[in-house]
Each structure stands twice: as structure tokens, then as C-alpha cells.
Amino acid sequence: MSAALASPADARAYHASVQPHRPLRLAFLADPNSVHTRRWIGFFAERGHDVHLLIGEGNRLQPDLNGKVAVHRYRRFGAWRLPLVSSLQGGTALRRLLARIHPDVLHAHYLSGYGWQARLSGFHPYVVTIWGSDVFETPDRSIRERWWARQTLGSADLVTVMTSDMRATATALGARRDRVVKVQFGLDTDRFAPGPADLVLANRLGVAHRRIIFSPRAIQPLYRHEIVARAMAQLGNDVVVVMSARNADLAYLSRLRRLVKDLGVIDRVMILDEISDADMVGLYRLADAVVSVPNSDGLPLSVLEAMACGRPIVASDLPGLREVLDGGMDDYLVPAGDTAALNAALRRALALPVDQRETMGRHLRRLAMDFADYRTNMLLMEDHYRRLSAERPSGAARDPRMGPC
After folding, report:
1. Which of 84, 88, 153, 348 has the lowest tally of Cβ within 10 angstroms?
2. Element (H or E) spanning 327, and its range?
3. Angle, nearest 10°, between helix axes 35-46 and 374-391?
4. In 3D, which of 185, 154, 215, 174 has the Cα closest to residue 298?
């Protein structure tokens, strides 16, 4: 990174002062329906760059993708679904597509799958953005997955992480230390900001005059919503938990619904099918506490959004969040899977006097703004793209270590 971009404030000043550069041609391998993917690639499309999203044949593409993003489909796996052979055939198809597009940089979001494909393509320079469980959990599942992780990270021209803990883990898995940088997904701190409670939303949801715990993470086993339900069941009858079924693991969702019924709190756990963008901000502002208690995590954007809205957070005691909180909020960080500790922390959050809640909210918002401003981080990433493009040898797009395919 250039010395001029050593801090977020310096980055803003630097990018405000420089002359415009030529647009870059950027290719992305990523979940096409993830809000994080869409926000990331949408920024660069709106900045005037030539943005291409590469997705496998048959992958469902939800509507409302930024119209400036070009979408290309390729045969991700070969006709013969055999280990390695099929993947190599998919790499060949991707290589041909990249030869047509001829991007300045290929960027894979998520190490497993998308990062592996980037390496198989033989294209350089390629970037891998780590999301969390792709380094904290997936490589431990098998020797094969650990090998792929090591090969992909070791060959990457740049690896972006969100926290120091993720940096250390990526390096231990084979990434070169001098190629690992911190870049946040970032959040819109103008949109996610303190504001009055949305009483219309509260009445529509039937939660007016109730204390609200918002659990915004996807209903998947990793995020331990069953612990949230058990801890909430021991709180007062005026407490309600709000969750979203979007991108839920259906088997886990079914088990969670059965648990809620068995606990006798079916009228106090509200699982919404969808939460609109406007309602998401409204729910943060309505929440008396926002909870996130996964077994492992990088740096959850939902927690940063809650912080930017000035809401109390209760979260798993994990290194990434501790890094942002800078030693504060110990009473609200709990061991993953500990129902009693979660219950106690939620009680503390719900019992906060108004003046303490406001003081905490101002502190949390400042931390979120300093650490994860969206525009600042995307401009930092743009600088990395330009550096990689400038360092790329003319006509070199293949890694000779890949061998013939």
C-alpha cells in the first residue's frame, strides 16, 4: 500500500487530490446473490470501472444486480464429475473465458470454491478475499481442503482480510505475509446511523411496547440461533427476538422452530421471511440489543452496522471483534455456545439506563466509523487493484507452476 494511504483519513485526502486514472477491467468470482458481493462490485461499477461477474452455468442469479456489471457464465465443472478431473476441466473453461475478457485483475471472494477456481485458472494477478469460516473452519475438515487452501493462498498475488487474527491464520495456511492486507467490506455510515425508533415498523410487526433483541445473522448452524432462543427464553415475557429466514439452512430452521415451540416461546421469536433494506435500519434502531454468537467469525458486518446505529451489542468473544472494540465491552462478549453467559449479557444490555445506553452508542458508532467506512475501504482496494495491474508483466496471465491442462 502506498504510504499516502496509511490511515483512513489519509486515504480520503489522497483520493480527493489525485487525478483520475484510466478505468480498470475487473473480473470477480463470487456468490452473485450475496449482498456483500453486490455492494463490493457495485462500487467499482459505479466508479466507472469495467466490471465482470463470472458465475457457473446453472447458478441462480437473483434480480436487481447493478446493471453496469457484465455477467458471464462458464462451465464450472466438467462433464465427468470425478475428483480433480472435473475441477481441471472447469479451470480450462474459466481460463478461456478470462482470455476473452482479458481483465487487469481477477478477484475471488471466499477462499473455498471461488479462490480455488481462481488458482486453477492460472490467471495472474488474482486476489482472494477471506470471509471468515473459509480459513477458520473449512481447512480443518480434510487434508484435501487444507491442501487447496495452502496452494490458493500461496499463489495469490494479494490476500485481503478484515482482522489481525485472519491475517495470522491466512499466513499460517501459506499466504505470503507481504501479500496480506486489511480491507474491510465497509458499511454506509450515513445510512446506518442513530435515529428515532420506527414506530410504524414496530406496530406493523406487532412489537410495540416490547423489548427487542435483533439477531440478524442467517439462520444457519454456524450462527447458533438455538443458543439465542434458549437465552431469551429465560428473560422477561416482554422480550421478543427478531430473526430473518433469508438464506436460511432449511433443516436447521426446522429444528429451530421445533425448539422454540418446545421452549414455549413461539410467540416471542419472530422469524421474518425477508427484511427490506429500510426495515433493516429500522430494526437496528428499534433494538434494545443486537446479538451475534457464532462459533467462529471474521468481522461480522451486521455487528458493525449495529454499532454504527449506536445500539448495544452482545457477541461471541472472538479476536476480530475484540480488535475493533479495542479492549472495551468485556461485559458484552461471551464464550460461544454459553447460554448462561449470553443470558447474563443480554440482561445487562436490556437493563442499561438511558444515559449509559447513549454514551455506549456514541462510543460504538465512533469505532465503527473509524474502522469500517465503506467508501474509504473501497478506495483502498482500488489502489491495490491499480498497483497489481501496473506490476503485471505485459501479456503474462498464466502461472507456469500450474502446468499443462
Report:
1. 84
2. none
3. 70
4. 185
pLDDT given for residue 45 in this prediction: 97
Quote the radius of gyration of the chain (alpha carbons, Å).
22
Cell digits of residue 236: 422477561
Task: For residue 393, give every residue at least 6 positions away whose Cβ sits within 8 Å of its Cβ, in sequence order, or none.
Answer: none
Q: Is 70 exposed, middle or buried (0-12, 13-18, 19+ CB in 10 A)?
A: middle
Instruction: Mention every residue, 6+ apart, whose C-beta is less than 8 A from residue 362.
Output: 310
Q: How far apart are CA 172 and CA 170, in angstroms?
A: 5
Residue 400 has a pLDDT of: 36
Q: Yes or no: say if 75 and 93 are a contact pair by the CB < 8 Å rule.
A: yes
Q: What kind of fold does domain 3-186+373-402 have according to CATH?
A: Rossmann fold (3.40.50)
Of 289, 249, 242, which is closest to residue 267 (Cα–Cα)? Answer: 242
Neighbours of 239 (CB within 10 A): 20
Q: Which pTM was predicted?
A: 0.78
| Domain locations along the chain | 3-186+373-402, 199-372
- For the domain bounded by 199-372, which CATH number is listed? 3.40.50.2000
Going by C-alpha positions, the residue among 279, 278, 224 that lies closest to residue 255 is 224
Cell numbers found for residue 391: 506490476
Over the stretch 198-236, which tens digit does the pLDDT of each residue have?
999 999 999 999 999 999 999 999 999 999 999 999 998
> How long a stretch of residues is the chain?
405
| 22: number of Cβ within 10 Å | 10
In angstroms, the CA 380 to CA 28 distance is: 17
**Which residue's entry shows cell 493462498?**
153
Instruction: Provide the phi-psi class of 361: left if phi over 0, else alpha when psi is between -120 and 50, else beta.
Output: alpha
What sign has the CA pseudo-torsion 99, 395, 174, 321? negative
Helix (H) or strand (E) holding 188: none
Distance of alpha carbon 18 from alpha carbon 2, whole angstroms: 13
Q: What is the DSSP string of 123-138?
A: -SSEEEE--SHHHHTG
Tell the residue number behind the cell numbers 416461546, with chain if given: 265
pLDDT at 163 over 80: yes
Beta strands 50-56 and 269-272, pairing class: unpaired
Question: Which H helix or E strand runs over 210?
Answer: none
